Amino acid sequence: MDSNTLTSISSFYPPQRTLMGPGPSEIHPRVFSAMGRPTIGYLDPVFVKMMDELKELLRYAFQTSNALTFPVSGPGSVSMEMCFVNMVSPGDKVIVCRNGVFGARMIENVQRCGGTAIVVEDAMGSPVDPNKVEEAFRNNPEAKILAFVHAETSTGVASDAKTLAEIAHRYDAYTIVDTVTSLAGIPVLVDEWGVDAVYSGSQKCLSCTPGLSPITFSDRVVEYVKSRKTPVQSWFMDITLLLGYWGDTTRTYHHTAPTNALYSLHEALVMLREEGLEAAWARHQRNHKALRAGLETLGLNFLVEEPYRLPQMNAVHVMPGLDEAEVRRRLLAEFNIEIGAGLGTLAGKIWRFGIMGYSCKMENVMLCLCALESMFDDMGAKIEIGAAEAAAYHAYAAHPTRGKGMRAVA
Amino acid sequence: MDSNTLTSISSFYPPQRTLMGPGPSEIHPRVFSAMGRPTIGYLDPVFVKMMDELKELLRYAFQTSNALTFPVSGPGSVSMEMCFVNMVSPGDKVIVCRNGVFGARMIENVQRCGGTAIVVEDAMGSPVDPNKVEEAFRNNPEAKILAFVHAETSTGVASDAKTLAEIAHRYDAYTIVDTVTSLAGIPVLVDEWGVDAVYSGSQKCLSCTPGLSPITFSDRVVEYVKSRKTPVQSWFMDITLLLGYWGDTTRTYHHTAPTNALYSLHEALVMLREEGLEAAWARHQRNHKALRAGLETLGLNFLVEEPYRLPQMNAVHVMPGLDEAEVRRRLLAEFNIEIGAGLGTLAGKIWRFGIMGYSCKMENVMLCLCALESMFDDMGAKIEIGAAEAAAYHAYAAHPTRGKGMRAVA
Q1: A59·B1 Cβ contact <8 A
Q2: A390 and A336, same structural domain?
Q3: Which structural domain range is residue A145 located in?
Q4: Residues 226-265 of chain B whose Cβ lies under 8 A from any Cβ of chain A
Q5: Is the Cβ pair A38, B14 closer than 8 Å?
Q6: Using one digit for the tens of pLDDT, what is the confidence trace for A226-261?
Q7: ipTM (interface predicted TM)
Q8: Among candidates A150, A59, A65, A64, which has minimal Cα distance to A102?
Q9: DSSP string over B203-272
Q10: Domain shared by A311 and A358, yes or no
Q11: Are residues B254 and B313 located together in one domain of the fold?
Q12: Final residue of a domain: which of B273, B296, B311?
């Protein structure tokens, strides 16, 4: 240890950023306020009641009546792994759709559970092709699970979860669905679609502090896991143990819950219920239309074809002639705005503009367009001053829900 | 979903409790304040600098210069599992010491990694017996790892980590050490002891919000894991992937870090550095002496023999004739004080009084003694009014560090 370095470390004061990257999104003051309330014990009766409310609120967010619906004490990667370690036994075949970074991570998970991944491949930026999934099942009718990402954060593409789930049903397979970026931003209808294991993240459209991941399991998956012949390879992620903690009847010590993070998730979900899911979806659409009009007016082209675009995650090709990283660096340094870079094969080729949860508000859209315009102008790109802002406002004004929630949660 | 239930859920306001259970411990206002600072991106250069500081502060807490020292984005159970999944390959023999609940959990972890656990058994409340460990190694010289709990939260017993590590060294074995309850409460000297994989929790003597677990790995373990023939069974816990995120040179996306929880850990560690490790250890000793004098005056007997008692976790036998659960229920309901119950075979037989971190202060000791005295009196136990408080104060006054830190961090 270098004691000079050590004594030079003092309290940390982060800057106030406008967060328009792939997450975390901005957090409403009510959610911060909830997070700072007194810590209490994880078996305190008052805490246990709050846990029950959390489960109920998450059932609303997921549109499900699944009994086993709770927030995992870890990021979305833990929830993803929780699905695979419980549902995949050595030797199992799993059809995994890869059209981005998170599909690739699913394949890794299958392999580490001793399963075989049958990979359905689509280009980054394209949705999962249902015909390819159908073909994969035809060639592998014994496949037990279909796993796919509903909303690929790495590219901003939405896949048709309902259609993909129907194919899985025809082949009597379970489904694992990543809704990290979709939940509360576009419809996620767990019961209507009949999907089995669905997880999300706290820090995207729920606008809560990062570190938790809501998850829901259908009853048939719970029964299936209980009847496994081989033990689940992870102790922490074994849902048969977690049932004792988050289940309906017992409250057995499993791990120390992240108390204050759970307070903040509770508040974020109460706010979602107050706004209403439909209104939240409309808000994301409305601000997406405005952002899109502005970005296109600036000469930026979307990576994803129109019908498959996620309103909350807007990936555009980098402006030809401009330095991709320099634009992001200057946005952060000069305007306090964070946007996302490309991942994997898209590194250096795209920018990602997230408008998720509390970050999804007209002031962010407008600030971002002003900043880009000012910078592009400065860097010598040919643009018409003020046109992007005007286009964004026109798109906003033309939206049937304009004026709704512009002030409250924008 | 029951929409009536749903709409009845409003913001959550927890009571202000005095936390004297097994954790979480109370949280200093400075730490809460840090937690509520603006969320920023996990690849923001300002955040990356804070991560570097966190690593340095944790090296101080662990008294180590290990490069791979960082806070895991999950509770202590995840850190425990992280040690085992990285270091145990199928077929490996691991000597595991069980003298409480957390030793038992280690055995489960070994088995789920496909390893064989050689169990060294000691009674709950007794420390790990070094002679038994020596014997286990004699009978299993090929054992690769020795795993033990330094401070058993379930009983309040400390084991002699230095001596146990020396035995492991003689047999050229790695060590995995659980310091969840010991770190910052009693000396944890990672480099001096030469232990290899050591994890803790944020919510005990560090007095930070629950949900993070500091961990440190020796360089030789990192090299060993890199050279594994079989892949680590967990994607999330694979330290070769985490090196890309928490390592010294690169900063590759792995998962979204729990930003605000990390702010609060940073602040808690800055406060620990300001107080100084030695002063923190002395504070735990001082308040333990006071609490102990008071509890014994009330007629309560310690579970653990004197030389092995953890100052921060005081387990006593339940007062004969009193209803164990009723005492805890009334302490919570009437005095807002949380204490811990017994776990496993000790359920219903002991009470556990935690004085960890910011909960380790004279006002908590005194309040707790007053509350117990008042209740015991009410329940018909024969006690001398005021004697426990007087005894506690005498013990406090006799301590060489009295008056130091009584106001600041008590």
Answers
A1: yes
A2: yes
A3: 29-273
A4: 231-236, 253-261, 263
A5: yes
A6: 999 999 999 999 999 999 888 876 677 889 999 999
A7: 0.95
A8: A150
A9: SSTT---SS-EEEEE-HHHHHHHHT-SSPPS-STT-HHHHHHHHSSS-----S---HHHHHHHHHHHHHH
A10: yes
A11: no
A12: B273
